[in-house]
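cron nightly-structures :: item 1 of 1
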Amino acid sequence: MRRHSAKAKLLKRLAGWLGVVAFVPLLRWHARSFVSSNTCQHPPSHLACNAFFQGDGFRPGETIPFTQSSTNDEAKGRRKGGVDEIDEDSDIFNTGEFNPYEILDVSPFDDIGADELRAAFRKQAKIYHPDVPGTGSAEKFQLIKRAVEELASLGMVGEWKSKVAEPINRKERGQTMSEDYWELRGRDFFAELETELTDELKMRFNESDKDLSDDQLRGRYQKENEYWEELRARQADQDVLDRVEDWIEKKREQRRLAVRQRLRGGSPPKELGIPSEPASAKTLQIVEHRIAQWIGLPESMLTDMTLDEIGFFDPSSWDDVSICLMLLEEDFDADLVNVMEKKGQGAKIQLPDWVKTIADFADFVELKL
């Protein structure tokens, strides 16, 4: 009986020891779970609960910087954190609007400094500068200019980067920096680039002239002279057309004033009679010269021609006639004719019935002086 009692006590002690041994790991597991749970609920500022955020400093609600880049080619174009690759065919690059990165063939993910922007400009400008034969395009060059000024004005070029924070500091001190500052810096930067390129193109073309024969050089210079003459002629034509518009409007105003005077009881202007003497040689010469310019005939053939024969009263010739009359009034510094305009009809001038030939018209002009 005593042997069984001793054995029972030994078994009881053994069971208690085994229980303690089994309880210790369980206690450790509960303690670890408790600590981990509290750490995620109240993490220190330098820890993160999710391994994705470790080391990048961003949180789900924050904005990823647009111009981040990596020296690792495989990582270039990816968001910091290693996920969500940005597609270069997305709306970031193809908005259908002006895109300076696309025009200059640079990536917004790269660090663009003064040297990079200069190289991008030269690459495009050497093809599309208006002075480049064959591929030059003034329209495309204007886009290149705008792209350079845009990127430069953003403060992305070289030394300007350090000045981006300057407006903030000034604002804190109650001062402001004009928004035009960056735009002007962008224009100055482009002007510098354009001057460099223009000088280089001139040197290149001058060097190419050395390889041309005298006949080839004469041919090139002749074409250049023809081009400039044509350009000056177009500019002169446009200047004349602008002056004619002003002249016609002046005649319309004179006509309106004359109508008002007649409605107020004023007497109509008296019609000029046939002069007793012909116009002076100088007056006739000026009239013949202007009309000869208009119709392209020698002045010697005009004296006995009628105004009808040269299309003076033809509505389809009014544009040319109006230029001729305007120039004559400028030559003589006088109002020579009145212009009539009726709805649905072309404009025409008022002349006495006896004015039939160019010589008669010269006589009429001298009566108006």
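cron nightly-structures :: done
The chain has a mean pLDDT of 66.
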